[in-house]
Known about the structure:
The structure is a homodimer.
Chain A: E1 2-9, H1 16-27, E2 33-46, H2 51-66, E3 72-78
Amino acid sequence: MKARVHVMLKSGVLDPQGEAVRHALGSLGFEGVQGVRQGKVIEIDLAETDTAKAEAVVTEMCEKLLANTVIESYSVELG
Amino acid sequence: MKARVHVMLKSGVLDPQGEAVRHALGSLGFEGVQGVRQGKVIEIDLAETDTAKAEAVVTEMCEKLLANTVIESYSVELG
């Protein structure tokens, strides 16, 4: 079973990578870019086939390793 | 209109970040992790309200800046 985890900085936390992308898009002539946030996406291939168990395991992975929950939020998609 | 871009290393391209995550998950006692790939997710807030135009603009952003199309693939979601 495949899981996809999105890890984004929480809103309110300064995102210098996103700001750099926004400025670069402006320099390249792209107009109307009101905001950019950059995060991580992690695709995990699991041996587990039970959706509920897989979701519990991946959530634990996020809490322990993948996200810094002080400044980052995460979401888990399975499929 | 919001756009979300996923940028992943193409399959076959070595992903040291993903490998590091896989090893770290193993060290933490998570079993059954068969593979991990790590990529970027970029959320862009656009002034454009037309879906077709926004998709064309974001695709151009990917080609010019957001993805290195030699080694990375990207996908665009609008909504």
